[in-house]
Amino acid sequence: VAEAVRRARAAQAGWAGANAAERAAALTAAAAAVAGAADELAALVVREVGKPVTEAKGEVARSVAILRYYSQQVFDPVGAVHEPSGTGLAYTRRRPRGVAGLITPWNFPLAIPLWKAAPALAFGNAVVLKPAPQALGSALRLAELLGLPEDLFQVVPGDAEEGSALVEAADVVSFTGSAAVGRKVSVAAVGRGTPVQAEMGGQNASIVLDDANVEAAAAQIAAAAFGYAGQKCTATKRVIAVGNGEQVREALVAAVAKLGVGDPSDPGTAVGPVIEETARDRVVAATVGGRVLTGGDALDRAGWFAAPTLVDGVPDGHVLACDEVFGPICLVQDAGSVDEAVALANGVRYGLASAVYTRDLDRALSVSARLESGLVKVNTPTTGVDFYMPFGGEKDSSYGPREQGKAAQEFYTSTHTVALGLSGN
After folding, report:
1. Cα gap 9→171, rounded to integer Å
2. Exposed site from 39, 98, 264, 329, fewest CB < 10 Å?
C-alpha cells in the first residue's frame, strides 16, 4: 500500500499540472472504454457479486454517465475574485489534495468506486482504490479499462490491514461500508488530520399514509426492499403503515410474490443470492421473535439464497426494528398517527434514506421536512441515487461531507486564498 501511494503521488504531480481539457479528454476516453466493454463488465458483476443482470447492466450505464459528468465538471470555476483590502488582487483557488484513498464495498463494484474516483481525478488527484475482497475482479478490470496515465489509478487488494494502511498513507479518504468499520476509518483519518467522508448504511423506512395508492406503493417498496436481495444501503428495511396496516400487508405479500427469484444471469430475476453463507444465515435468524408474513427460509438451491421475507410483530429492541440486516428481509410496523410514524422512522441510529407515500401534497411536504434522513423520497422508492446530486445521511449513516454532484469538488480539493500586491506597492 505504501509503495502504491508513493507511485500515485509521483503520478499526481504531472496530472495536476495538466490543463482541464487534458483531464476532460482522459475521462471522456475512459467513459468510452467502459461503454465499449459494457456486456463484459455486466457479466463480470453478475458472476462476482451475484447482482441480477438487469441491475448489473444499469450499473455499467451509470458508471459511464458518472465518468462523462465529471469529465465536464473539470471546467467548473475553481475559485472566486474578491475586493482587495488595498491595491492589487485578492482571490481564492481550489487545488487537489494529492492522493485519494478509496475503500469501497462489493455491492456496487463499479459505480461506487467511480463516483468517488471520477471527481477525485477530475480535480487533479491520484487514486488508490482498496475494494472489498469479494469484488476485486471488477476493480482490476475497471483499472485496466480506464486507460489513465501510469500509476494514476491503482488497485490494492486486501482487507482490513490494507485498508488501515491506506487510511494512514492517503491525503484524503473516502469510505463506504459498515458503521463499525466506518467509525474506525473516520477516527484514524481525523487523528492524522486527513479529510474523510464515510457512508455507512441505513435502516430505511417507507411510510405509507392512509390516502396512498397502496398497490402502487407496495410494488415500489417490494422492489426497493428485495431487489438485489436487499443488498443496498438505500434498501427499504421498514414499512410503516398509518391506519391501513392490513391493506398494506396484503399488497406487500402480493407484490413480493411477483418478484423473480433465481439465477442472477436470468433477465427475469429480481432477487438473486446473497453474497455469502453468513449473510444468508443472518437473514433467517432475524425472523426469530416476529411473525413471518412471507418467506423466512433459506432456499434449497445452489447458491446462498434466502427467500424474500416480510416480518411483523417484533418486540421493541428487535434487530429488525433497530439495525440493518443486509439481505432480503423487511419489517412491517403500524402507526396510529402521522406523528407516531415519523417518530418510528426517526427512532433508529441511522438516517440515510426514507420514503413517504401519499396523494396529499401538504402531508408529503410536512412529513418530508420532519424525517431525519439525508435522502427523502415522495412516492418513489428509497433506492436510487442520482449521481449529480449530493448523497449522504444523518446520524450513524454518514460522517463528513456529502458525496457526488457539485459537493465532490469541495471534498477532493482545498481552498487557497491568494493576496496579490502590485510590485510598486
Report:
1. 10
2. 39
pLDDT at 425: 62
Residues 236 and 168 in one domain: no
372 in the same domain as 281: yes
What is the sign, positive or negative, of the torsion defined by CA atoms of 116, 122, 125, 126? Answer: positive
pLDDT under 50: residue ranges of the chain? none
- Please state, as a whole number, how many other Cβ atoms lie within 10 Å of the Cβ of residue 367: 24
Residues annotated as part of the active site? 199, 233
pLDDT, tens digit, 9 for 90 and up, residues 309-351: 999 999 999 999 999 999 999 999 999 999 999 999 999 999 9
Query: In angstroms, how far apart are the furthest CA atoms of the chain?
Result: 84
Element (H, E) at 414: strand 413-420
pTM over 0.85? The answer is yes
C-alpha cell at 255: 407484490
Task: Compute the distance between CA of residue 67 and CA of residue 227 in angstroms, rounded to an integer.
Answer: 25
CATH number at residue 313: 3.40.309.10
DSSP 8-state assignment for residue 304: -
Task: Look up the CATH number of the domain holding residue 16.
Answer: 3.40.605.10
User: What is the structure's pLDDT at 86?
Assistant: 85
Q: Which long-range contacts (CB under 8 A, 24 or more apart) does 249-253 make?
A: 249/293, 249/310, 249/312, 249/332, 251/214, 251/215, 251/217, 251/218, 252/218, 252/221, 252/222, 252/293, 252/310, 252/332, 253/293, 253/294, 253/310
